Each structure stands twice: as structure tokens, then as C-alpha cells.
Structures
1.
Amino acid sequence: MEKRQLLATAVLALAAAGAQGQETTWRVEFLDVLGRSTHWSPEPDPPPPFTAVTLSGLVKGEDRNRDGWIDRSELSELRFGHDGVSGNYATCGTWGDSGNNCTLSRFVFAPEGPLGPSFEMTGQWNQDLGGRMESIVRTETGAEYSYAFYRSAYGSYFWTEDTTLRITQVSAVPEPAAGMMLAAGLAALMGARRRRPG
């Protein structure tokens, strides 16, 4: 009986360890954000009208403390917008690319919060090439998303009372190392149980 209890305890511990190493990816979409973009020209045409668009992003992380929120320390990837310049905001301040600089001053994410899904971020991405500021991208969800590319393109988008948030879980794959550890542990326990006389 004691052996069975020991085996059950070990199996549960290994299963818990396997369940913890799980990163999840979500797609974040803000629908009906009002805005417009235009290309630079020395003799600009009249600006296009404002239209409703969808701004989207990607969040990848693991809720390690099981509080229902992904905070900045639990992020592995954070991307937002359609500017083609901004990279992974989760790495802001951790890499030394002299041409790119990013800040992430606010981040809140709960895919299933008590009052519904929540995603908030305030960040900026600057690209400086050859001593000249090539682009500035600013994001403050709930307020504004904008970009300005030197002599190229400009865009400004604003949240309105009609803007809604949609969060879709894309994947949740256990880490391979955790799965292999669980399988190896179970095999070892079963082998030890067979070798010992009952």
C-alpha cells in the first residue's frame, strides 16, 4: 500500500511539473479603430478620409504564478500594429541594436479577466539609421496608435466608443523538455515497481 501511495504521489508531482512549462500564444484584435494613413509627397494630395480598421497584435507568455494575468516578466513575445518596423516589445531594454530602440512603459493582459478580456500597452519604437531618425511608432491602446516614417508614410489611429477588443487563443503547447521529463519519470517508476517483489 505504501509503495502505491509513493508511486501516485510521484506521478502527480511529475504531472504538475509537466503542466507548468506551458507557453500560450494569443492573437489580440481591436476592431473599429478610426484612422488613416498616407504616403509622403513633396506636393501632398488631400489626406484620405478616416476609416474604421482592425489593429492586431500577438502575445506569447506563461502565467507562471497562476493569477490569471500575464505580466511583463511572464512575456516572451509581444507585437502590435502593422507598421512593419516594430519588433518584439518583450525584449525592450535587453538587446543592443544601435539602430532600434524600444520602450514598454505599461503592459496589462488578461485573456479571461473578471470583467472580460483586457489588453493594454503603452510603448514606443524608434528606428535610427545613419544618424537620422527613420521612424517613430507609438502605441497607447485605448487612446492612439501612430507611426511616422521619414519621407515615406504616416498613420494615425484612435480608439472610439465603438472600438471593441477580441482575444483568440492560438496555441498552448507543452514544452518538449517537460513532456520528456514526465515520460522518463513514469517509465522509471513503473520499471522499479516491476523489479521489486510485491
2.
Amino acid sequence: MTPSPRLPFFVYGTLRPGEPHHDTLLRGRTLAEEPGRLRGALLYDGPGYPYAVEERGAGTVEGDLVTVRPEDYPDLLAALDRLEEYRPGDPRNLYERVAREVLRTGDGAFVRAWVYVAAPAVAARLRAHGTPLASGDWKARRASSPRPSPGAPRTS
């Protein structure tokens, strides 16, 4: 098996700063975390995490380009593959790890990066029955959630 190239990662969901997996997997293991955009994809709401579904010519997914410290790269690549339940060639994958051109918004440069996108069977189900997030931004989903009116009883 050929080793994977050491590309940065484009993260768009629970690995972004402030999200549940960022601190446990990325904190202290990165050289840079910069805003980025994946073009030609739609972001779908999942069961507590999102899926990027590639759609030629449609949509943009907001996220972050993460450059990993060289000494941490092999272990982090393996940890991210486990988190995303990705095994090369496994038809049961929920995600596929693919190399894509991602726009680094700070300087407008395109950077080749690893992106975990919905595997074909998952993508087909999402296209048929899923809910795309109009903003393309997982973090913005909270801001667009309805807020209780003042004085309304708390439910949690």
C-alpha cells in the first residue's frame, strides 16, 4: 500500500475550533488552522455531525484548513480515519477521504487538502432524504436555530 501524502486537512464539522473533537484530536498537533471553503459541495445535517456531499457546480462548505505538525502527522491521520470510520476500499464507509482543492480564504490561494466527504451510498441517501444546511457552515447552524422567547420555560 502506498503511504498517503502529507496534505493538510479541511475540517468542516466537529473538528473545527469550538466543536467537540477539536481539542481532543487537534489541539497542540497543528502548525496552522486557517479559514477555508470547499466549492462544489453541499453540507448536510447528520446525526450530531455533518456530511459534505460533492455536487458539481453547487454549493460551498465553510471550514478550516488544518496543517499538522510533521511529527504528529502519522498518528493524527490514523486517529482521524478512526473518528470518521474510514477504511480504504471498505464499502461500509460513512465517509471517503479524498484530496480536493480548497480555497484558503485569507489569501485566495487554492490548497490541496484531505477532505472527508460522504461515501457514495450515504451521499445518495442524503440527496434523496437529507436536509442541506443553506449556509454551508456547521457552526452557523446554532445561530439559525430558533431561540426561545424571553420567559419561555426551559426544556433542558
3.
Amino acid sequence: MFERFGDLPLHVLVIHLTVVLLPVAALTLIAFAVVPKWRRLLRWPALVLGVGVLVCAYVAKKSGQAFVEAVPTLSKAIQLHEKRGNLLFWYALIFTVIAIAAFLLLAGVKGDKATNSRPLELVTQAAVVVIAVLVIWQTVRTGDAGARAVWEGQLPAK
């Protein structure tokens, strides 16, 4: 199921979406959490992107595993990429949980704050910023390791 999309490996297609979606979702959630006047506008995009992150990370992980099963000679070259990708999946899971919590606590379905507790709001904002920065950082690290595994030694020297 995760091996191909048409004639192409699914992983090659899905990683491009993932590399764009994860940082966009992270930046959207940060804006949602730290700029109260934008919450009403960003509440639904932040929630949808927050859940979309987990879906993309899961499909990227599964399609990557299927890709290596189809081409076992890659397994040694992509060890670091795979390790970082597994960690990114866990960050994406935590990100999704925090995105849902932030949606419920900071804006709610109707756009009204669900909490009047300033300390809880600050903790939620801090959690959003921390996990969003981690997701962006780990996305870059994972993508870099994958690109190096594929392209190292194939590009002309500067």
C-alpha cells in the first residue's frame, strides 16, 4: 500500500509534501498561539495542519520503510535518515496532541477561549513554541540526511 504511486516510489512524492507542510504547520501554530488577535482566524487552519502533520509523517515513515524493502541496498546508506525520520514521527505525534490542546484551550470551536487561566495559557503557548521549533529543526535534519544519502558524491564539486 505504501510502496508506489503509479510508477514512482510513494516516499519520493510524500517527502516533498512533508518537508513543506511540517514547517508551515509549525509556523501557523506558533502564530495562532502567540498572537491572540489572530486566533479566531487561524484556529481551524492550525488544527487541520496540526493533524495533517501526523498523517504526512506517518505516510512518509511507512512509505520509506516500503521503499527500503523494495530496494534493500539502500538500508546502509539511509540509516541516519531513518533514525531521524523515526524521531520526527514522534515529534509529529506530540505536535498533533499539542495542536489539538491549543485549539481547545486557546480558541475553541466557536473562537472563544476555553480557559481563563493565564498560567495554563502561558504553558500552552510555551509548549506550542517548543514543539514547533523541534518539528522544524528535526524536519531539516531528517531531510538533510536523506538528501545526503541520495546525492552525496553525485554532484560536481564547487
